[in-house]
Amino acid sequence: MGQHSGSGAATTGAAVAIGPLISGALTTWLSWRSIFFVNIPIGIAATSVAVAKLRETRDEEHGGVDWIGLVTLSGALFTFVFTLLRGNDKGWSSALIVTMLAAAVAVLAVFVVSQWRGRKPMVELELFRNPSFTGAHITAFAISCAVFSMFLYLTLYLQDVLHYKAIGAAPQQLRAPLQHLARHAFVSGLNELFVVAAGVAAIGAVFAFLLVRRRDFVRAAAPELAAS
How far apart are CA 56 and CA 39, in angstroms? Predict the structure, then answer.
């Protein structure tokens, strides 16, 4: 478990460190649209390694594809993301946005029912009866939201307030992944509940400081967040 946790932390730290550097270079020297093509060579390389190195396995009892779950979940996510992206342009009370939002809720409800009643669901809803399983996923989701949303605020602050270019803002964000690796090494022997509580409290304190003392940060970030 410790080796798995360490590998995950190292991979996450490396990805967070390399991501801003590559995206900053692409945005500055090519175009922001080029970031959507960066996963193509990575996907080809990952597929090649997987085909060459991974051993094929099959579970006859749980084999097959849950097509109903796949289609309904994909449709719900598509309509919901479309609503968030186009809501400001079309108007949140417009017929299109209201219809898309209602469709997202309806299709998501169909997905949940299909998982509850299906013979081979892609998500075993019975697992959520386990408090440890549910609590772990809620905690992971909350921490991911807090950590990854920080990069949006930080990018807006560096470029809109401090006037860094994309390639110049990227090195400033290296502190976060380096701190992530150092923190993982430091807290590996501490109580998990204490680490989570202390981390969430620290993030809240930083944002409270920014809201109270750095009004320039708030003024720069608020319009971009509303638009996003």
Answer: 24
Query: DSSP per residue over 49-97, as a string?
Result: HHHHHPPP---STT-S--HHHHHHHHHHHHHHHHHHHHHHHH-TTSHHH
Rounded to 5 degrees, what angle do the CA atoms 199, 205, 210 make? 130
This prediction's pTM: 0.55
Residues in the chain, overall count: 228
Contact yes or no for 194/137 (Cβ under 8 A): no
Tens of pLDDT, residue by residue over 135-158, are 888 887 887 777 777 777 777 787
Name the packing angle between helices 131-156 and 192-213 (round to 10°). 30
For residue 191, which phi and psi values (nearest 5 degrees)?
A: -65, 130
Going from the C-alpha of 1 to that of each of 8, 10, 29, the distances in angstroms are 11, 14, 42
Residue type, 214: R
Rounded to the nearest angstrom, the gap between the alpha carbon of residue 153 and the centroid of all alpha carbons in its chain is: 15
